[in-house]
Design goal:
4 helices; mainly alpha; about 100 residues
Length: about 100
Amino acid sequence: MARVKYTKENMPKTREEFQRALKEALAASNPIDDLLELAVELHGYEQQYGMTSEIFFEKYQRGEMGDAMPFIKWAGRYQLYLDLKSKIEMSLERVIAT
C-alpha cells in the first residue's frame, strides 16, 4: 500500500515536498501487491478470531462484534480489500472487453 512515513527528523518543509513524496509513493504502489498485502493481514485476523472476514463483517455490520479497536481496524481493512478487489476486477473486465 502506498505509504509516506514521517518522523520529527524528516517532516516535509513545504506542501510541495509532501505532494512529491505522496506522488512517488502512489507511483510505486501496485494494486495487486496491495490486494495481496490486505489478504495476508485479513488472514491474520481470521486466524486470531476463528472466523472468516466475510462472516466477521456481517456480524460487525449488525453490531454483534462491538467496537473494540481491532474490530474497527479489521472492518476497515476488509472494506478496503473489497473495494480494491472490485476495482481490479472492473479494470480486468475493461481490458478483456477491448
